Amino acid sequence: MQQLDQQVVLRNGVPMPSLGFGVWQLQDGREVSEAVRTALEVGYRSFDTASFYGNETGVGKAIKESGIAREDIFVTTKVWNQDHGYEQTLRAFEASRRKLGLDVIDLYLVHWPVKGKYAETWRALEHLYREGYARAIGVSNFQTYHLDHLLETCSIVPMVNQVEFHPLLAQKELRAYCAEHGIQPEAWGPLMSGRLGRAQVAEMAAKYGKTPAQIVLRWDIQHGVVTIPKSANRSRMIENAGIFDFALSDEDMAALDAMNRNRRFGADPDNFNF
After folding, report:
1. CATH number at residue 148
2. In a domain, 119, yes or no
3. Does 127 carry a binding-site annotation?
4. DSSP string spanning 28-58?
5. What domain range includes position 41?
6. Catalytic residue among 44, 53, 108, 177
7. Where do transmembrane segments lie in this chain (predicted)?
8. 261 in Cβ contact with 168 (< 8 Å)
9. For this structure, is 208 an active site residue?
């Protein structure tokens, strides 16, 4: 696919594809393996999973059987909330690595900022990074105050912060914070859980000869945000990847920015109980 190899460079010099493939809610075994296999055929080279998703084994199987060189594939996984703590995180990482069948994880994230625990968990990630088991480390669902707290004690600044991000949740303050500290923002749920039926988006889709999903994903990319849409459908995978042959005007970017309502479709990092 055209320019599916476009990358950002993380603060430690590691390149990361700008567009990846998410596997949340895909069942382990045949469903996730076939989806990843198809995505690889389409041209995706970045895959985002997590221990909580329960499908690391299927993701790893598809990658191994693809015949594509390991260095050409970028794999992200995450430590779950019940595994926070230094020793627990090291054990969780080893379990994920074994399921994925990989010697090295490209990006390892703290999945949620569990109060009173994530600083110790981060210390384990720093160890994994220094030992070369993870090429990059980061966090997910961290607000600015979570990051402030972490930066008070950490010796390595997170390289990525993966958060819910779309036109209805533009995260302007958080993106500015990440830019100031050299943290790469990454979008989960970029397509608003399929709620793309907005007049402004439809008008832009007609204007550019693109689909609403392509308009929104292009908005992500032009904001410098890595994005990981999910679909098990081959044609939708191809559609989601068709965002590198056009650019939104400054006016249209601003119009999409103006859609912000601080609306979440996923859990709130300030109030979660799992």
Report:
1. 3.20.20.100
2. yes
3. no
4. TTHHHHHHHHHHHHHT--EEE--GGGT-HHH
5. 7-196+224-246
6. 53
7. none
8. yes
9. no
